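User: I'm preparing a small set of examples for a lab meeting where we compare how different chains pack in three dimensions. I only have the primary sequence for this one, and I'd like the structure in C-alpha cell form so I can line it up with the others. Please keep the answer compact; I'll paste it straight into my notes.
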Amino acid sequence: MAHSTKNARLPRSNSSASAAQMPDEYPNQAYLLYPWIVTTTTIKVPLSLRDRIASNARADKVTIAAFLTRLMDDEARRRRLAEVGAAMRDNPPGEDYWAEFAQFDAIGGGVDGH
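Assistant: Understood. Below is the C-alpha cell output for the 114-residue chain.
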C-alpha cells in the first residue's frame, strides 16, 4: 500500500512521554515501513557514479537508499576495525598474553576448535 506524502503528518508527541521513550533517530530502514516520515535530499554525483550505484542496488534487489545505507555501515565497520588494528600495533600484547594464548591453544581452544 503506497502512502501519499502530500497530506502526511507526523504523529504528535505525547507531552507526558519521557525523552528516554522517544528515539533520537529512526532505524536505518524505517523509510521502507514509514516512507511519509523520511525526508529526502539530492546529492550531486557524476552520472557514471549514479549509474553504478543504481546498477549495484538493482543487482542486490534493494533501493538506492538501502544500498547506500549498507555502504555507509560497511565503511563505519571498516574504520572501527582499522582503529582496533592501529591500537593493537601501537600497543602489542606482552609475553604474558602470548603465554596465556599458548596455554589456551594447547587445551583445544584454538581458532579452529581442535
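A couple of notes for your slides: Residues 25-106 form one domain. Residues 1-24 have pLDDT under 50 and may be disordered.

User: Perfect, thanks.
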